[in-house]
Structure formats: C-alpha cells, structure tokens
Amino acid sequence: MRYTVEAKGTRLPFDGTRIASSSSQGSQPRWVEFNLYKADTGQYVVERIGRSIVFHSYDCKRVAKNRLSGVPCEDVPSSFVPCYECRPSRMDPEGLFPERDRPDFQTCDTPKGVIKYLEQKDPDDLRYLTNVARDLLAEASEEDEGIYNVYIIQSLD
C-alpha cells in the first residue's frame, strides 16, 4: 500500500505495510499518536503526530511561540477547548488561534533504531519508553519478527 508521512514541510511517500498504531488520547485536550510502518525497502518508518483541540487568544504566548494562525471564531470546532492560561472567548473579535497537528517521522534501518527513536530521557538521563510507545512496540511485536526480537526478547547490550 502507498503511504505518505510528513514533518515540517517534508513529505515522504513510500510503499509498505502499517504494522502498528497507538494513541494516548484520553480525557486531555492534547495527545500523541504513533504509526509504525515497514517499507517495501525493509526500512521502518515511525510516524508521530501531536494532536490538540486547544485554541488561544491573539495575545497568548503560545501563539507566537508556535506560530499559530488566526481563524474566524466560527471556524473553530465546538469540540475545541480554550487554553487554560489565556482563557480566550469564543467571540474574540481578533479571531481564535487553534493549535495544529504536529507531524514528525523518522526512518530507521533496524528495529533497534525504532526503539531508540521512541525512547525518552528523564532529567537524570535515564532512558525510558512512554506507555503509548510501549503499546506501539507490543502491537508491532505481533506483526514483525525484528521488533519482537529486540523488544520482547531483550538483552543487556
């Protein structure tokens, strides 16, 4: 099947198979979604999309920091929620500034590369996997022997 992933204006079209997906979506207005693909070339493609249903007022510090664009108030879906810091009104004459999806991807030549990309570091530089990353790898382990061999069968490298 043909897929396309994106990151900061870069597009990567490829043929392959989606072997796993996971999401941290819950009751919070921001969450992350992962898709893991195996390209026909043998490479892995990890797609990460930060999602949000938060909107801001024009003078919120996040508008400038994240370069958000204003839209007419009626264009913001009713499912979106106001920023808890700037507390915008849905009737703001300046318009509203909704957060956008933040897509990213990484290609990896090996299953170990996939895990390395998904790892986070805590303040003490200890590496760990988030629950949503663990869910992705657990599902991928059922579909891909390479992921299974480095995630389920661990070693002390």
SS-based class: alpha+beta
Quote the beta fraction.
Answer: 35-45%
Spans of at least 5 consecutive residues whose pLDDT stays below 50 are none
Q: Name the assembly state.
A: single chain
What would the principal axes of the Cα set say about the shape?
elongated
Helix amount: 10-25%
Please give the number of β-strands.
10
Gyration radius (Cα, Å) is 19 Å
H/E series: EEEEEHEEEHEEHH
Numbering strands along the chain, what is their spatial order in the largest sheet?
Answer: 1-2-3-4-8
Q: What descriptive keywords fit this protein?
A:
157 residues; alpha+beta; 5-stranded antiparallel β-sheet; 4 helices
How would you describe the overall organization of this protein?
- The protein is 22% helix and 36% strand.
- With 157 residues, it is an alpha+beta fold.
- The chain has a domain at 2-52 and 101-152.
- A five-stranded antiparallel sheet has the order 1-2-3-4-8. Strands 6-5-7 form a three-stranded mixed sheet, with no helix packed on it. The chain has a two-stranded antiparallel ribbon with strand order 9-10.
- Helix 3 (131-143) crosses helix 4.
- The two termini are 35 Å apart.
